[in-house]
Amino acid sequence: MAYSTEDWGLAIVMFVGMSIATLVILTDLLLEGFSLRGLSAITFGLAIGALIAYLMSNSPLFEPLEEDPQLSQMLYLSRLGLYVISMYLATVVALRGKDEFNLVIPYIRFSPQNVETPIAVVDTSALIDGRIAAICESKWVGHALLIPRFVLNELQGIADSPDPLRKEKGRKGLEVLNRLKQMEHVDLRIHESDVTRAAAVDSKLVFLAEAMKARLLTTDYNLAQLAEFHGVEWLNITSLVKALNQEVSVGSSVSVKLVRPGKDAEQAIGYLEDGSMLVVNGGRDYVGQEIEVEVDSVVPSSGGKMVFASMKSASD
């Protein structure tokens, strides 16, 4: 059965379309979570694969096919398939290889460190809270801080509020933002694009963090629960501060400021950093001062724990 020229044309169009679709799908799978090294490897692999295919297609192996006019269509398909296969294999080898590029490309050397930086989308509540600045100053933050433009607009709106309390919170958030901007070791980024699919700021934050595969940095518990529902990881500043609080045990020494007298004679009351009440025996005369005490006992209570201590020495 003979095939006409139209049949060959339709077959070529179908083959080329399927090849391009397959290449696009494979490229999308390979580019998932790509880095600068991955992009360089793909570019290098495509270039080498195209060069190899060009040299092979112009080699003497294809000269007998060129002399026969009836095999010209098959020659075209063979060369096209050779280009697709060579470029694909070269790209895969370049991506899977762990060797540095200076071994294959002279005078070019890529840094072996991972250029991918985890991103944390910062909420308005985290800026108003203020503790993020102290944490960043300690250089413990390993994330790039991303501030969306709509968060800045919300913060500016709070600072311009006629309510004195809200205005004070907004100004504090702007001051914290300026402190973060002045820290050279902090990777602070402003995200200019807006999320048109969501109306509320909380929904925009969750959608943006989910789309960028980033974490959410917030002190808003309701927003954190919304993020957790959508599968977005969130960073809890309050949990971090609690984890860094000093663990008190019997016999340990702690420094505490006495704020008021206790119920019993000679007792004074102070509070630890985690909010636990500390009762100091013999500390009534030092109310308003910060003293060093020694823990006598730790008693669990409905609010957490209550610590009893004896006065050790008063500071100047």
Strand and helix map with partners:
Blueprint: H1 5-30, H2 36-57, H3 63-67, H4 72-96, E1 119-122, H5 124-129, H6 131-137, E2 144-148, H7 149-159, H8 164-182, E3 188-191, H9 201-211, E4 215-218, H10 221-229, E5 234-236, H11 237-244, E6 253-261, E7 267-271, E8 277-281, E9 290-301, E10 304-314
Parallel strand pairs: 1-2, 1-4, 2-3, 4-5, 8-10
Antiparallel strand pairs: 6-7, 6-9, 7-8, 9-10
Describe the structure.
The protein is α/β, with parallel strands linked by helices and 316 residues long. It has 3 domains: 5-103, no CATH class; 119-243, 5'-nuclease (Rossmann fold); 246-314, Nucleic acid-binding proteins (OB fold (Dihydrolipoamide Acetyltransferase, E2P)). It is built from 11 helices and 10 strands. It has helices at 5-30, 36-57, 63-67, 72-96, 124-129, 131-137, 149-159, 164-182, 201-211, 221-229, 237-244, and strands spanning 119-122, 144-148, 188-191, 215-218, 234-236, 253-261, 267-271, 277-281, 290-301, 304-314. Strands 3-2-1-4-5 form a 5-stranded parallel sheet. Strands 6-7-8-10-9 form a 5-stranded mixed barrel. Helix 2 (36-57) runs antiparallel to helix 4 (72-96), helix 6 (131-137) packs parallel to helix 8 and helix 7 (149-159) packs across helix 8 (164-182).
